[in-house]
Write a structure and sequence with these properties.
Number of strands: 28
Strand content: 25-35%
Number of helices: 7
Structural class: alpha/beta
Strand order of the largest sheet: 7-4-6-5-9-8
CATH superfamily of the largest domain: MoaB/Mog-like domain
CATH class of the largest domain: Alpha Beta
């Protein structure tokens, strides 16, 4: 049996990026309504001040602070109400003269001459158009100045930002109606194995339901990739070869799980190597789990191939560490959600290999605790019962109780 010559994960990443540089995603411009979840392809700068006018943050009266400097409950300042600002109407012609005030609603324009707004709770109409103000105000009180929120020329959102609903709101407020975004990769997901049946079938002896096709496709979709097809193929050389050739014709990335080791039916490396004119980049990574991982590149079709181990948890973690890592590198997007947590027990690492450890998170009084979830090969439940995983480097002997780790949460 031929032994795998493994690459460190960092080396596998470097090789993949170097060989697949032509897969740097392109850009397109789309409207705000379709932009949520997409990755910005360039920095977006504001072309105007927000707010564009001085805006009141309270219902109240716009005043000159010099007129209310001595105002109090016992001796209020008496001001003449000289006008009212109405939302939605041009109020730029209104001004506040000495001894006067103007009613302003929340969000309303603060007229020239006024330098503060006194909350309506401290104001009482006194008849004949007069107002008793029982609280003093300092300059700028309850007023948002022009450009105080966002100034013209300010960076609104950086390149690489995966747009969230609140980001869409910021862009809308700044008058940005379309944005340049990264074009997502098109992905085909293939699972191989005579033992696989679809989720709607009842597996007989020696058969199992296909897991990896759905797990990897779901993770791809959550990253924004376009899923071209999801297929399960028997351990038949011709069938797998046809599936790979079909996939590379219309996909940027072809992900295949199963058959990547060195067993009797493990033909993935040979078939991927045949489909990729640049040959195999990596066959075997120094990781536990995930050693029998394959990467390759076909320059003619500009297609990347990833051969994942059949173990569902290993397949998902390796996919994160290689393919998703490369996508983030190319796009500048790093939306990994991580949590710092304290480990509660000894956890050994695999000597010379990067080790992935599933954990559950328990919130404590002072900090979050990471409880290891151990899984034997092929077990499924630990993947869903865990909240994520942390990584031990190849130079680490293990983790001791009380050590703190960075947990990558499942997406």
């Amino acid at each position: 049996m031929k032994l795998l010559t493994v690459d460190k994960v960092s080396e596998a990443r470097r090789k993949l990026k170097e060989c697949c540089g032509a897969l740097m995603p392109g850009n397109e411009s789309i409207g705000l309504a379709d932009a949520a979840g997409r990755i910005l392809a360039s920095d977006i700068f504001s072309k105007e001040n927000i707010p564009p006018y001085r805006r009141s943050i309270m219902d109240g009266y716009a005043v000159r602070t010099a007129d209310v400097g001595a105002a109090g409950d016992m001796i209020p300042s008496m001001l003449k109400v000289s006008g009212e600002v109405i939302l939605g109407f041009d109020s730029t012609g209104i001004s506040v003269d000495p001894g006067c005030c103007v009613y302003v609603p929340t969000g309303g324009y603060v007229p020239d001459g006024a330098d503060a707004v006194v909350m309506v709770e401290y104001c009482e109409p006194f008849g004949n158009g007069m107002l008793a103000v029982s609280k003093s105000a300092s300059p700028g009180e309850n007023v948002v100045q022009v450009g105080e929120d966002i100034a013209e020329g300010d960076l609104l959102l950086p390149k690489g930002r995966k747009l969230r609903p609140q980001d869409i709101g910021v862009l809308a407020a700044a008058g940005v109606s379309s944005v340049p975004v990264v074009i997502p990769w098109k992905v085909t997901v293939i699972s191989t194995g005579d033992e696989l049946v679809s989720p709607d079938e009842t597996p007989g002896p020696g058969r199992i339901r296909d897991i990896n096709t759905y797990t990897i496709a779901a993770r791809s979709a959550s990253e924004g990739f376009s899923i071209v097809r999801m297929i399960s193929v028997k351990d038949d050389e011709d069938a797998i070869e046809r599936a790979l050739e079909t996939a590379k014709a219309d996909s940027d990335v072809v992900v295949m799980s199963g058959g990547s080791s060195q067993g009797k039916k493990d033909m993935s490396a040979d078939l991927i190597g045949k489909a990729a004119d640049s040959g195999i980049i990596t066959h075997g990574i120094a990781a536990k789990p995930g050693k029998p991982t394959i990467t390759a590149y076909d320059s003619a079709s500009n297609t990347m191939f990833i051969g994942l181990p059949g173990h569902p948890a290993a397949a998902l973690m390796v996919y994160e560490q290689l393919l998703i890592h490369l996508w983030h590198d190319f796009t500048g997007c790093d939306d990994d959600i991580t949590v710092k947590a304290r480990v509660n027990t000894n956890i050994p690492a695999a000597p010379g290999r990067m080790t992935f450890q599933l954990v559950r998170l328990i919130s404590g009084e002072d900090e979050t605790e990471a409880v290891p979830v151990f899984a034997r090969s092929g077990m499924i439940s630990p993947m869903s019962s865990s909240d994520g995983y942390f990584v031990m480097s190849e130079n680490t002997e293990g983790i001791r109780p009380g050590d703190r780790v960075t947990v990558y949460l499942w997406r």
